[in-house]
Amino acid sequence: MKLKKIALSGALLGLTLSSYAQETNMQSAMPLNENDLNGTARFRAMSGAFGAVGGDLSALKINPAGGAIFNYNNAAFSMSFVNKNNKANYNGTNDKKNYDGLDLGQLGAIFVFNSFRSDAVMKKFSIGVNYESTNNMRNNVRFRGIGDENSLGDYFLQIANHGGPNGGPIPLGDISPENQQTTITDGYLRANYYGGLTGRNAFLGYNGGLFTENNNAEGYHHDFLTDTPFHQSRSISTSGSTGLFSGNFAAQLGDRFYVGANLNIHTVDYTVDSASYQTARNSSNGKDENISFMNSTYTYGTGFSFNIGAIAQITEGLRGGLSYQSPTWYSLKDELYQGLRTQMSYDNNTNFIYPDVVLKTPTYKLKTPSKYTASLAYIFQEKGLISVDYSLKDYSNNKYKPTNEYQDINQDFKNELQVASELRIGAEYKIKQVSLRGGYRFEQSPYKNTKYIGDLNSFSLGLGYNFGPSRLDLSYNHTARNYQTTLVDMSYNNLYSNATVKSKENWINLTYSITF
């Protein structure tokens, strides 16, 4: 017997348990492959083209040999203001959503130790520590429009009919209440125990009145409206950030050669709140319905990586640099809370299926790809410089562990992702105490099919004023990239049209640095 309403009771309220909490896919890994290129205002004003320049705390993450370019001890503190503008189009309907906020961009110091022996091989060495916010995850995206022939209810019906053993229906006993006293929490936990993700979502759909058992055949039959326009929308709100703590050692060997290395600790702490909505009305009989599906996923953990690099002074003005950024080895956990609300005027029922349960995953591993960078810079004595960096990163080398549990996703990485290049160009020109700066950055899409995530284009401007022992720098960055998303995240047989999101970011960075 199907219960249209299930009362909450207290035996297991607030319970947490180990279970795979979300439909992990390729997109789940991408936030940890992305980088805001945050840092000092000078670094950002030149679009991060610092691989052969050095002498800046943020340059150390591009090429750690740049620490040995410093001549004096240095400390810097940076703050950022960011505006994120997201314009979405879903089946011809436009919508937009913005985010404005402040961010701690960078904080660090470096200490230089000189050798006073003229015949010393190591002329000097430096030790530095630096923190940067690598990815400001705070953002708001929304799209809405008239859907195609598929209802939001079809998502739950497809799971119920094809999420069971051997791709068949999920057994009714796994998703229906055992008796009249079964609570939402009890039933949800039971469905999770037997079916994991598919069991949980099928439980929500069944007890939300979206489908019933098919009496004439195997599987389930829809109980939601069909053959009518579906007014659909989705809101995605993210919060939190990823960060990078780096320890740097660099040395000058002889008069023209510099080497360095970083040890890095990565922090991950962000939440994605997603809500999918649908309203529908059958004009011929006046029946209408409302469906709301909510998911909140909190991801947290740490990672480790290292960098090595070298810079050679080829001529008096020309420098060349090479650097290697290792894979980042993450150890992560997820926590998920979800719920479903359905309101059907034709059976006078409103169903609130909100289990008071936080699902926790066991710790899982993610290895993101390594990165290679080659750089050239020409220094015009005291007048300024021009710098170019070129990087390669093979995104198909992303890998989840345990391998046997993520085998299909790891194969998707191989099939769908590619080697992507990144080009950064920067310039600086000095007029007495004033420095004028500019830059351009291009980052190729990690996807073979660029409709999922397009290429990134960015330009930057900035200026600085040198007070002698201290300096104040200001920068502006504009970044644009298009990507696609859907009404509900699905790893196979997507039922819905893609919404195209045109994302633009405007950053203003301010850095105060002091030499001592």
What does this structure look like?
This protein has 516 residues and is mostly beta strands. The chain is 11% helix and 54% strand. The chain contains 6 helices and 23 strands. It has helices spanning 26-29, 41-45, 153-162, 172-175, 184-207, 407-416; strands at 15-18, 74-90, 93-114, 122-136, 139-146, 211-213, 220-222, 230-253, 257-282, 287-313, 318-325, 328-344, 349-353, 357-360, 364-368, 371-380, 384-394, 399-401, 419-431, 434-443, 456-466, 470-485, 499-515. The protein has a 14-stranded antiparallel beta barrel with strand order 2-3-4-8-9-10-11-16-17-19-20-21-22-23. A two-stranded antiparallel sheet has the order 6-7. Helix 3 crosses helix 5 (184-207). The chain is elongated. Residues 1-22 have low confidence and may be disordered.
Give a short summary of the structure.
With 516 residues, the chain is mostly beta strands. The chain has 6 helices and 23 strands. Strand 6 (211-213) and strand 7 (220-222) form a beta hairpin.
Question: What are the salient characteristics of this protein?
Answer:
14-stranded antiparallel beta barrel, 516 residues, 54% strand, mainly beta, 23 strands
Element layout with pairings:
Elements: E1 15-18, H1 26-29, H2 41-45, E2 74-90, E3 93-114, E4 122-136, E5 139-146, H3 153-162, H4 172-175, H5 184-207, E6 211-213, E7 220-222, E8 230-253, E9 257-282, E10 287-313, E11 318-325, E12 328-344, E13 349-353, E14 357-360, E15 364-368, E16 371-380, E17 384-394, E18 399-401, H6 407-416, E19 419-431, E20 434-443, E21 456-466, E22 470-485, E23 499-515
Parallel strand pairs: 1-14
Antiparallel strand pairs: 2-3, 2-23, 3-4, 4-8, 5-8, 6-7, 8-9, 9-10, 10-11, 10-12, 11-16, 12-13, 12-14, 12-15, 15-18, 16-17, 17-19, 19-20, 20-21, 21-22, 22-23
Helix pairs in contact: 3-5
